[in-house]
Design brief:
Shape of chain A: elongated
CATH superfamily of the largest domain in chain A: Response regulator
Order of helices and strands of chain A: HHHHEHEHEHEEHEHHEHEHEHEHEE
Number of strands of chain A: 12
Number of helices of chain A: 14
Oligomer: homodimer
Strand order of the largest sheet of chain A: 2-1-3-4-5-11
Helix content of chain A: 40-55%
CATH class of the largest domain in chain A: Alpha Beta
Chain lengths: 349, 349
Amino acid sequence: MASMPTVTDVALAAGVSRQTVSNVMNSPGIVRADTRERVEAAIAQLGYRPHASARRLRTRRSSTIGIRLDPMIDGISGSVLDRFLHALTEQADKQGLRVLLFTATSPEDEIIQLQRLNDGADVDGFVLTSTFAGDPRTKWLIENKIAFVTFGRPWGADDVSDPQHLWVDVDGWAGLYEATRAAQDAGARRIGYIGWPSSADTGDDRRRGWHDAMRERGDVTEADLIALEAVTVDGVAEGTAAMQDLRRRAGPLDAVLCASDSLALGAMIANPERVPVTGYDNTPVAAAIGLSSVDQSVGEVAAGVLGLLTGEFGGQVHGAPESLQPRYQMIRPRLVTRAFAAIPMEMLV
Amino acid sequence: MASMPTVTDVALAAGVSRQTVSNVMNSPGIVRADTRERVEAAIAQLGYRPHASARRLRTRRSSTIGIRLDPMIDGISGSVLDRFLHALTEQADKQGLRVLLFTATSPEDEIIQLQRLNDGADVDGFVLTSTFAGDPRTKWLIENKIAFVTFGRPWGADDVSDPQHLWVDVDGWAGLYEATRAAQDAGARRIGYIGWPSSADTGDDRRRGWHDAMRERGDVTEADLIALEAVTVDGVAEGTAAMQDLRRRAGPLDAVLCASDSLALGAMIANPERVPVTGYDNTPVAAAIGLSSVDQSVGEVAAGVLGLLTGEFGGQVHGAPESLQPRYQMIRPRLVTRAFAAIPMEMLV
DNA sequence: AGAAACTATTTGATCGATCAAATAAAGTCA
DNA sequence: TGACTTTATTTGATCGATCAAATAGTTTCT
């Protein structure tokens, strides 16, 4: 294969200068129509493609976003990040952006990687996932004026409306509020909740959705509300145990909501009465066994992240005060309702 | 933040020339020890990082590998590719390689993307996953002399030992052979198999592993061997149905092996006798519910892929006949044995 | 018609690194 | 010692694109 043609080759073929060729690609508006057509024909004929590195060197833009690939913390729910990554890559591509992966062993190590990629001009900005309270990464990125957007709101003491920290997140509260309402509308009164210990902020958020909806309706007493809640760490076996616990303590249930699909899967195993169970994340497992679940619309999240990010490195420097756009975005999740069809429980007996 | 220092800045600080600085980074051997130390000190002191794009422009190497992010064809087993991607990124990083993602809607579209990334000098080579019979992608890559390695052997008419097609794959036959042997060693005689229709080559391979091991041992008659096999497309509900079918047709079973974890999960649902079930892929679901499974050692696969790929664009041009290294690598999977502890079946009754 | 104001296109310089070849320094040997 | 290697370092050119400023070509208006 002969080496790739360059702008000069195209310019020669079209009878114009290098810069005009460049203009046709980057600001077609300023080139006269007939000239543009001639250049475009030459580009097509020679099969010209701009050399990405040359362009990046000159423009000081890499058109690349860095994102850390997590080591599947929680097995089952890992697929959410996976889907997010896919959506991000797909949508980034449409805007001419590439997605570069990296891994890290700890938040501190991640900062080293962030610095490496940024200093080497490998990326224009980062997308961070799984934010947590006191996250050192966001602090570091802000201090170093590096563009980034997080999938996950600032937790704990960090300010949700800090103009320097752009974020997109899914409204876990709304997800569970809606799921609770849906169950109530279907006639359920005694709706249980299996959630995580309150050290995890994201779990508290979801729990409140259920709790608020239950209180608003007032179908059960305060004492019952306490009995209807089980707390456990994530996991299938844990979900099973929590479900047994719940049935023992709360008596008959009309429905059960869970903070994750893992818990929901577990709950469903100890569920002979076939009480409707709803999970969270709408993972493949939920789809496979016919479990209702709250779906984090990763497509919308990806779009939001990209919007904020390109606004960031497209426009002014980081944290420019004059930008009046919203600095964050809360996405409303979507409840996916499924019947229990996939598990013919009667066969088990 | 002041703009990043360049080689020239470092050279000035260390009192040497640009090229010496470059040599310290790329061929330290040819620089005198004391000079090297001086330069290294200057690099550290200034916090210098080479500009990736500048280097790539000059060297005509991107040190980047392109890989397509699949849209989770099969929900549950998608995590295998996910784990592979993670291992690949991690190991690539150690060799100074980056991993760039892309998406595509079809094999034809994928070829367009491959061309785009290659022509733009964005990547040095590709890693392809999920190969299939008559795969147009490998054909195209070979024709265009672009470096690539596939995770998955050439299927169908494609030649497994074609020196132009480098590949790494997991030996599904060995995986099921071993799983069968393990069951036999544990005293099982009547071992059932739930597999896929024979249109999928990868499924046939796994089935043969079970079939060969059963025949070698000769514990059951040929007629029984036929009764011990159920065929169905992938899915949890399908696994449940196949399991019922198997129990009806084959009578009592000592163990059941499945072509996937989805099928295994399904099989376990219709398994009141608690016959040991073994899946394939060792997905998080298997881990969560305590299912034995055949693990595709993605770490080894990633290492193999990288070895072949760097050998490819590190050394001679594609398909150079003088290379005597093996052109492919078959990885032996590993059987992960788990007890059924996670599912307390008695609770269901 | 001629100056002013645009619009379209070209030219020279530059981004930050490495290559290739030239030079300088050090070591070897008759 | 002087010619000859070998080793270490420097210099000028270059990768392929875009930027900034200069030039050529058009249109507008008095």
